Amino acid sequence: MISFIVMFMFWECLPAQIPALNSWPKAKAAIFLDFDGQIVEGTAWNHGVRINAQPSHLSNDDIRNIFRRVADDFRPFNVNITTSQEVYNLAPIDKRIRIIITPTHSWYGNAPGSSFIGSFHWGDDTPAWVFIDMLGNDVKKIAAVASHEIGHSLGLQHQSVYDENGSKLSEFNGGSLNRLTGWAPIMGANLYSACTAWITGHSGINRDSLQSDVTLIAGAWNGFGFRSDDYADDLLKAERIPLDDEHFSFKGIINEASDADVFSLDLPVRAELVMQGINFELGENKMQPDDIVVDILGERADTVGTYHLSRLISGRIDLILQRGTYYFVIRSGGDKKKKLASMSYYALSGSVVPEENLKQLTFQNNTKDQLIQIKMPKNEE
Question: How far apart are CA 157 and CA 78, in angstroms?
C-alpha cells in the first residue's frame, strides 16, 4: 500500500506530455517554446545560482493556442517554432534559443519576461523567459510576451515613442487603441491589442535610431532569412483565419511581384466585417502601400471588392456580408513581370460582428426629410 501511494504521488508530480508542434520543420534554425520546466545553470542569468524553473502546467489546448500565435508572428521567416526538445537539440547551437515559459519568477523580479539582446546566436544555450504568473496565465498575453522576448534575442530593441524634440515619451509604442481594428508593435506595448505586427519605427535607443524589425530578424547575423513563400496562392490551400472574440488579424510577406497570399474566413451567420491595414512604415526600398492590393472573394471566387492597402491604412473596409466562406487575396498591384527591389511586409486586422449583435439607431433628418440608420455593436453606447 505504501509503495502504491508513493508511486501515485510520483506520477502526479510529473508534468503532462507536451504536444510536439513544429511550424516549419525544414528550417535548421529553431525557437523552442519550453513548457515543461528546466534547470538552468552556467548562463548569464545564473551568477553562480542554480535556477529551477517549474513546469507551466498549462493545458495542451492552451499550449497549442500559444504556439499558433507565436508561429503566426514568425511565419515569414525561415525558422522553426517548436515545442520539441529533440528538435531544439538537433538545431545548430548558434541558431537556436529556448524560451522557458514558467511560473518561476521570484529569482528575477516583477516582470512578465526577459531576454538578452542578440542571445539567439551566442551559441551557449542562454535562454529567454516568459513568467506566466505575472500574466495571469492568459494565453494571448503569454504568446505576446514570448514573441517580444524572442524579438530581443534576435537583436531587436523596443519600439518607442518620442516627441519632435527627441525626448522619449514612452519606452513602449502602443500603436492604435481602436477597439475594432486596434494593433500594436510586437516590440512595443503588445499585450492588449487585437493585432500585433513587426514595424519600422524609432527604437528605444534614441529618436534617430530607426529599427526595421523584419529586416533585422532576417539579417545575416541570425542566419536564417525569409521563407521562399509563407502562404499559398491557391484558394483550395487558403490559410484559415481564426476568430478571437470576434477579432482577427493576419500578416505576411509579398516575396515578389507574382506572389499572392490567400486566407479564408468563415462566417457562420450574416455579419458586419470591419478591416483596416496596419500603419507601419515600409522603409525606402519597400513596395509602397499603393502597390499592395487586397481582393475579397466569395466562396464561388466572385469578387466582393478590391482595395489598395494604402486606403485601408487611411480608412477601412466596412461591409455587411452573408454567411459563408470568404477569401482574402493579398497581392502586388504592380507589373507582375517587374522584379521587386525588396520583399514587402503587410498586416491587417479587423472584426466580425454578427448582425444580431448590432443595434440600429434611427434619426430624422429634418432638412431632407430622410431617415438615417446607423448600426453599431449593442455593447457600445
Answer: 21
